[in-house]
Records
---
Amino acid sequence: MTKLRAGVMLGMALVLSACRKPAAESQPPSPEGGPAVVLPAPSKEPRYSVAVDDPDEIALLTQQLKLTQVRATRGKVYFSADASQLGRLREFGYEVTQADPEAVDYRVLRVRRRGSEEDLRSQGITIIAREKAYWVISGTLGQLRRLAGRRIPPRSDRAR
């Protein structure tokens, strides 16, 4: 039960840290008339990963080593670290590998309904909510950039 509680607490901390918004910037209008989504520039800060399955272990590593931008997935934890933190992880016996930030950082967006759900899924995008005029989707920055650079054909079937 304590592992579950620690996992939930870590997940809540990650969600809350991801919800912090930077200062508002003016956004150019989209073709549909609303504000366009401006994805952040590709990160120049390297990300790293280690294989960890235990949520308690992830929480301890984050706390003791002061890891930043922590994101846990099944079997791996992704984070930003400096040389001293990486050295301590290696001392503890972890095999640290470098990860692509474009494949690690996720965003949730609202997009206009165009094309089919299969088009989105084929890009690796997850559909969170389906509304009449739009979808709420989730994907890595890399997936969302590929989606933004691609024209999605209008849907042929209007009935739901």
Note: The beta strands are 47-51, 68-73, 76-80, 97-99, 106-112, 126-130, 134-140.
---
Amino acid sequence: MKARALTIAELERINYATGIGARNLLDQLSKLAIIASDAHVEKRREAQNCAPCFYLSRYRLAGQAFTHWNCQLCEAPQPMHHNTAVPRICAGCATTYGLCVCCGGDIETENRGRRTGRKARKQKCSPEARQAPSGETEP
């Protein structure tokens, strides 16, 4: 069976879809290049973020609602966060254990052995370290 010739409208839809796919691919490749170069490593470490969270955080979705949250390590209540994309780890635990506040992973994106994880769970961060980062206030 012979395929029929495509209409101009069908060809335009195909070209439009192809263009979107090509732009998405270039966008993803540029994001990977930014993460691989880690050009702002000092700012990233100061913000206590891993490379993917620091460079891709603007692509996260969040609702506009003040949200209560607890640290996943020390389980201490934290100040209300300005949106629903709350951090996973408090600033104190993140600094103590070298973790990303957004995802809770290692700040240098390196795997850790099981022993390191167990020791980190047994310890608790100090009350001084649990204080809110600058610019945030207690509820």
Note: Strands lie at 67-70, 77-81.
